[in-house]
Design a protein that fits this description.
four-stranded antiparallel beta sheet; 0% helix
């Protein structure tokens, strides 16, 4: 497992990545800046670490803020042409005309070979930085924030043919809300009862988690950024996080195979201060909060 926190702060219980020997694992991390504008990275075991910057949050007046939405599926190549390497996703009519960036959950599934995937503004060069790393046949998701590019589109590039799934989770506009980072704090761990739920979720079960008003999250918070981890899956499946009291969306946030431990960042809108977690397979769930919108 790995951990990221503001520079010179005590290491927290919450982790951001879980890994096993060999494979390369990514995750999106939002972290407050510490002493001298630094962040610290801790790993439980010796490993190489790659850090790519996607953006920053500023308290300066006029900075765009985040508008969250119930996850909405934009593209799924499994039902629209099959595996590919390059994909353009138009955003006209999907997000407001003044949106400058979007937050997406992007999934690579059933790739033909080992490889990587990167998301970038259309009209610019494909960056060196990747958003996903995968092995042949694997399903890997990651949260991505990317500027809106030429033709009001974002582009996806994979270095090998793979199916690509893109779910919209929010966008940035002048009308959006500011994002405030907090020290990573564990809110849910079904292995030990943290958060009020003890024992693994059964396949098809949904649980709710009270978030607003705890761990530095104000009672009026409308959304949070979570790091959600699935472990101990009995079979392959997925997990979806959504506002309680709303219809569960088609989009998923994590995909897991039997026995795997998988983490992903999740933008979770709240309803009545709660978020709901649905598991399609029997799994243990862990949720750590990193930031809030209020």
């Amino acid at each position: 497992s790995g951990w990221v926190a503001p520079g010179a702060r005590a290491r927290r219980l919450a982790s951001r990545l879980n890994s096993r020997a060999g494979p390369t694992g990514p995750n999106n991390v939002l972290v407050a800046l510490g002493d001298g504008g630094s962040v610290c990275v801790y790993a439980l075991t010796a490993t190489d670490v790659i850090v790519d910057v996607n953006g920053w949050y500023s308290s300066a007046g006029g900075a765009p803020g985040l508008v969250t939405t119930n996850p909405t599926r934009l593209v799924d190549t499994r039902s629209a042409g099959g595996r590919r390497q390059d994909l353009s996703v138009p955003l006209d009519g999907v997000v407001p005309a003044d949106a400058t960036a979007v937050t997406l959950n992007v999934t690579a599934t059933d790739p033909l070979f080992d490889g990587y995937l990167t998301v970038y503004p259309c009209g610019s060069e494909v960056p060196l930085a990747s958003n996903l790393n995968f092995v042949a046949g694997q399903t890997v998701p990651n949260l991505v924030t990317v500027k809106v590019g030429a033709g009001r589109s974002i582009c996806v590039h994979a270095n090998v043919p793979t199916n690509e799934v893109v779910d919209l989770e929010g966008w940035f506009t002048a009308a959006g809300k500011s994002v405030s980072a907090v020290s990573p704090t564990r809110l849910l761990d079904t292995r030990d009862g943290t958060g009020g739920w003890l024992d693994a979720l059964a396949a098809g079960q949904t649980i709710d988690l009270e978030i607003a008003g705890s761990a530095g999250i104000p009672a009026g918070a409308t959304a949070v950024l979570l790091n959600v981890t699935v472990t101990g899956a009995t079979t392959g499946g997925y997990v979806t996080v959504f506002p309680c009291g709303t219809q569960r969306p088609l989009a998923s946030n994590l995909n897991v195979a039997a026995g795997q431990t998988v983490a992903n960042a999740v933008v979770a809108p709240l309803s009545g201060g709660k978020a709901c977690f649905f598991a399609s397979a029997g799994v243990h769930l862990i949720a750590d909060v990193a930031a809030y919108i209020a």
